Amino acid sequence: TKLAALHDRQSRHTEARELLIDVLERKRLMYGDQHHSTLRSMTLVGFAFQREGRLDMAEVLLDAAIEGQIDLLGGSHPQTLDSLFGRAPVHKERGEWAPAEGLLAQVVTGRRRVLGADHPQTLDVVMQLARHHLEVEGHDQAEPLLMEAVDGLRGRWDELSAIRDGVLGAEGFDAAPIHGDYNVSNLLVDVADPGR
If you placed Cys at 77, which of 28, 73, 85, 130 could pair as Cys (CB 3.0 to 4.6 Å)? Predict the structure, then answer.
């Protein structure tokens, strides 16, 4: 799976998908179709097909994985929520805006409950839902989500800054910024102009 991720980062998508399919088949033989590890591999193959634009194959695999994960792990399990989050782009690429929004909202609710409102994975989905609203409906529904994400990131920033200052001291502030080139203003630009 790690080699497949490397291939994917190198834009070698076909090789990545082939490796993921091989892993999925091996897990099916070892564990059966309804094992959490097999279902996770099924999700990863679905994501690979989605990246290649093969939406019918992605849909079949993701739907089967989600159904199995809900039965086995429950609808609020992080693995199930990851699969639901990954299913939304298939709807969006087909112009199916309402189902995509419904899945994103479901994942936001689940991650808030399971991981907390300020968890980075929760904030990531909040940002995706805000981006969806900006693409489809405009700023009215996106604004409260953007503010939630900014507030959550600001809280994490303050926490990380305190840790950094405790390790590096005040003089280390400029020498080792924890945010790299990414900050709240870049986040807002990224949301407002995702193709940037």
Answer: 73
